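Side project, low priority. Logging it here so it doesn't get lost.
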Amino acid sequence: MNNPFATALNMQRQAWEATADLAEKSQVAPDRTETVENIEVGQTPSEVVYEENKLELLHYESQTEEQHDVPILIVYALINKPYILDLQPDRSVVRTLLESGFDVYLIDWGEPSKLDRSLSLDDYVNRYIDNCVDVVRERSGQDSINILGYCMGGTKSAMYASLYPEKVKNLGLMAAGLCFAGEGGVLELWGGEEFYDPETVTETFDNVPAEFLDVGFALMDPVANNVTKYVRFYDNMEDEDFVENFARMERWLDEGIDVAGEAYEEFIRDIYQDNKLYNNELYLGDERVDVSNIDMPVLQIVAEYDHLIPPGASKPFNEVIGSDDTEVLEFATGHIGMSVSSRSHEELWPQVSEWFEERSNGTDVESEPETPEPETEDAALAEDVAGDESGTADLSDGSGLEGDVEASAETDLDDETSDLHGEDRSDEEIVERGEDDIQEEPAEPGEMNVDEEVVGEVTDEDVDAESAIESETDELTDLDGIGQAYADTLAEAGIETFDQLTDADVAELATETGISPSRIEDWIEQAERR
């Protein structure tokens, strides 16, 4: 039994120590308050090289004397500001890539106004991202570039790579929401159509307010987000480095941005609720986002303890795309930790840099074209159709952004889908695209401020031309999930027709090609039905 006198003295001692601790913290509190209010973020030097509507394309100052041949374009999410990737000099994804010898660009989306309520995923992918990619291609002299997409930006990057595979050299997807079939965590559950109607939100607010999104994210772990972190801050108030790190994160969390209403509706409905991207059923405008066109090297960077985008919402995507060069880097951290933790920058990002570096040197697109130069105009047409299942033609020479690149930063392109989607843009079209950037009046819910013409479709004549020129190998590309890359791999294994595919031994073919047995079984079932 405890001595009651000792217990009383112990309680008194603890009270005195707490009072002394409070006095010490009170002395440093004014300095720490100033630190929190004036903390700096996003300190890596950059310049704006292109602007469109609210968007700014940042080009970062190089940190090495020589750079790799292929630049990296970072596509950020529509939620929060992108300086989480450049939070502080020693915890900056941007700076790490720069110090690894890369030429780095980043899309800062800005914050949509009420007039931007009708911006859709089609607008963001087929106009904004494509225009930025063309700027980077023009500035770098490369026909295709590296893309690194983070979170929602990764989802959009996957869409872009499927529509414009000829412009994407290597694709990095960082904590990207790509597959929602039951493994997407709490957000997938909360966003289910039986519980959540995104149209109700946008009909109420037009654009989805940052405050609305913040509450949802905070409720995913209410104790940690509303109590624990402030207790830790109090306990570490005398540690200036801790306070600075805390202040940077709090500033980023507090500076959320609204999300365009139409894009939000589409993302929740098509990606979360209907899982259309993973199921290869997604359309942007009138174009199908065929993920089998993603035939370039793909790196997925996932966080083991990510409660926003769990690994199960990302990793299965590698099984449905057309690339035979895929890799997953899974790291023991959280959604934000992969960007800002010191351990991530010591262990994870050197691996990411190495992956890109191995695929970004010695690139000579002219001397090593991905497809042979056609000898006739008819052959060129057939190869454009065969090489791009989405119906978009080649944009390899980047002539749509000619002239003084610095001057292009002052030229706004409008929010309309290009009439020459998939073709080189003329100077006249660029001027036309710069006349009207946003609507004069707020859009009604569901209204689209885009050109509704169907562009870049494959006509019956195109298909006939393709059929006349392509070999029997291309017959396999009629099956869902088989792009040209997989067709070529199967051809190397002696599988060029449906009959050969149905007669194949699944285990032997999987061993020879490296393709998963479940995928081969699915293809065989499709072939048997034909």
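Brief comment: The longest strand covers residues 46-52.
Revisit when time allows.
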